[in-house]
Amino acid sequence: MKDFQDLRGPRGAAWPPDLSSFSALQKWNAQEHGFAWPEAEFRQTWDSTPDGRPTKEHNFPGLKAVMTVVRDPKKFTSINVPALVIFASPHAHETWMDRSSDPATKKTVEAYFTTLNALKEKQAKAFEEGVATAHVVRLRGAHFIFASNEREVLREIRSFVLELR
Question: Measuring CA to CA, how many Å separate 109 from each of 4, 16, 39, 87?
Answer without folding.
Answer: 15, 21, 28, 20
